[in-house]
Structure formats: C-alpha cells, structure tokens
Specification:
- By secondary structure, this protein is an alpha+beta fold.
- Helices cover 35% and strands 28% of the residues.
- An eight-stranded mixed β-sheet has the order 3-2-10-11-12-9-13-16. A three-stranded antiparallel β-sheet has the order 5-6-7, with no helix packed on it. A three-stranded mixed β-sheet has the order 8-15-14.
- Helix 7 runs antiparallel to helix 8.
- The protein is globular and about 60 Å long.
Length: 336
C-alpha cells in the first residue's frame, strides 16, 4: 500500500506456518491452510526502516536526524507546533496535524493532559534474553518452545542468521550469560532432535528485553494522533508490534487523505476508536500466547488450567484456526 515493498518481497522469508513444542510434543500451526492462503514474512524491522527512509529521500522530503523533540504545543489549535532541538538550537515546526510516532518514552503521549489520558499496563515478571548469531536456523519455521525450565523461541533473520530467545528473570543481566551458557540452556528447552542439530556459534549481539502489555486511550487529542509504541506495547510472543504500528498508520493515512482531498474532518474523532478495536484484539492474543507458553509462578491449579487450555487449542480445528487467524494479523478496520 505504501509502495515500498519491492525489497521486502524479494528478500523476506515467507513462512506458511510455525511450530509450538511442549517438551517433545510438536504441533505445526498451518497458517496457509487455516487462513485461506495467508502467511507471514520474516523481514527485519531495521530493513523496513531502511526502505522507508530511502523512499523518503527519493521523494525529496527533508528528515532531521539527531534532533530531540522538546515539546508539542497548540494541539487544540489549527496550527500545532513541534519544538525540537537541533545543533544546540531550539527550532519550531508548524504543522496541520502531528503523528506521534516517537515510541513508548517519547513526548507525544505525555502531551495529552492527565485528566484525558488513560493508561492500561501489565508488566510481566520475566524478560527475553535474545542472542543473534551467524548460524543456521534451528528449523525452516519458527519454533515456540514451552518447558518446565521456561520459554524459548527459535527464530531467524535470514537463512544464515539466527535469533534465539530465552525466558529469564528480570533480575538477570546480560553479563550473567556467556554464549556457552545460553546455548546449553537453549538445548534443555527444545525437543531433543532440535537440540541435537542446533548449530551454535559466537553471539553478534545479546540483550534482555522486559515484556509488557500497554495501551493508552485515547489515541487522538486535538490534532495529535498517537501511532505504534507511543500508544501501545505488546509482548513479542504474538509477533504483533510492527503489524499494529502499520495498521495505525494505514488508518491515519486514510484519515489525512479524506481531509486534504475531500475536506472531511468528521473522521478525526473516529481514529482512536477504529485503531483501538484492532489493538485490543492484538493485545489479547499477545497476552494469551505469553500466558500459555511461559513458565509462570502460581498454584498447581493455575498451571493445570493453562495446560488444559493450550491442549484444547492445539487439538481443535477451531482452536488452531483462532491461533492462525490472529498470528497472520486480523483485517484492518477501514475509515469510511
């Protein structure tokens, strides 16, 4: 839709399914078969950014790098402004509308008054330790692994570069995990045949990311529109973060076109409601995947109930279809 898909189509890895492994039991989620031919594309977010910036350069549009946004002003006026600092000088950018795409820690969400903004948050009591390496992926498709020792994900960036993750306590530090310790632990959390064929190697990068579910409401205030991580965060288990950001921008694009080409301003008030319908469904799926697949503290009955629910979903056509439909991404809601 944005016209920047050429390299993604050529270089992205199309996956028609993924696996969920519980101990030695493996279930393949047939995305293609369960969703009438849909699939997912493995393509790094850094590559998406590169494609977008190259398109912007080609369009002759200016971009200010190394510029800190200090303040948003006049959001309820016809000419809101962005105050930013560049080369140690304060600059003012006059706007018709502002897209707040500055992430969870940016100024956009903080610019909405406290008596208007509502924030919903769940912080999970563990993080993901990720290791990037130039090694052969563990499988042609992603494997989500649930074990008594915790969750593990076998993922990839390309056919020769792997990305693996381990569930770890939030108290852990990257320095606690040598490469050898990481690979040894990963082998205990995946099926035996995966462990025996796992190619190991030195890490290119290691990091620990906390997990949270977060939604801000509303996503629109005056002429400011929150999009992506500025307005919502999902745990990565459901692979929905970038997908949600793209759906926000698609909705905002439709809205701005209707304003500039048709003179319609009635859709402004519907931006938040339209985006949030899809966001909350993606939040639910990401929370569900996280809850089902991670080792959680709790009573025996809590764990037994989780195991029973996951067993039902993985052994039911309806359950498998629900997982597949949410994993490939629910349809975008269109403003009309």
């Amino acid at each position: 839709e944005a016209g920047v898909h050429t390299r993604m189509d050529a270089e992205g890895l199309r996956h028609d399914g993924f696996e969920i492994a519980i101990g030695e039991d493996r279930t393949r989620i047939d995305l293609h078969g369960l969703t009438a031919g849909k699939s997912v594309l493995v393509y790094g977010q850094t590559e998406v950014t590169r494609d977008l910036m190259e398109a912007r350069i080609a369009a002759g549009q200016p971009t200010h790098y190394e510029s800190e946004v200090v303040e948003l002003r006049g959001l309820n006026t016809d000419k809101p402004t962005v105050v930013f600092r560049s080369d140690h000088e304060d600059c003012v950018l006059e706007c018709d509308y502002i897209a707040g795409c500055d992430g969870f820690h940016g100024v956009s969400r903080r610019s909405i008054p406290g008596d208007t903004l509502r924030e919903h948050e769940k912080v999970y009591p563990f993080g993901w330790l990720g290791l990037l390496s130039d090694t052969r992926p563990a499988s042609d498709e992603l494997i989500y692994n649930k074990s008594d020792r915790g969750f593990a994900l076998c993922s990839m960036r390309s056919e020769s570069r792997s990305r693996h993750y381990l569930q770890v306590p939030l108290s852990d530090k990257v320095e606690d995990w040598s490469d050898d310790r990481f690979w040894d632990e990963l082998k205990t959390r995946v099926p035996a045949d995966v462990a025996s064929n796992l190619e190991t190697g030195p890490s290119l990068e290691k990091s620990i990311a906390p997990l949270r579910s977060f939604v801000a409401e509303p996503l629109q205030y005056g002429r400011l529109f929150l999009a992506g991580d500025a307005g919502h965060i999902v745990p990565p288990t459901g692979a929905k973060g970038l997908n949600l950001a793209a759906s926000d921008i698609s909705t905002l694009f439709t809205l701005l076109v209707s304003i500039y080409e048709q003179g319609r301003t009635d859709l402004i008030e519907r931006y938040s409601e339209t985006c949030l319908r899809r966001i909350w469904k993606a939040e639910r799926f990401s929370w569900w995947m996280t809850t089902m697949l991670h080792h959680l503290e709790g009573t025996d009955i809590d764990r037994k109930l989780i195991d029973a629910e996951l067993d039902y979903y993985l052994n039911s056509e309806a359950g498998l279809t629900t997982i597949a439909e949410n994993y490939v991404g629910l349809p975008f809601d269109r403003l009309e």
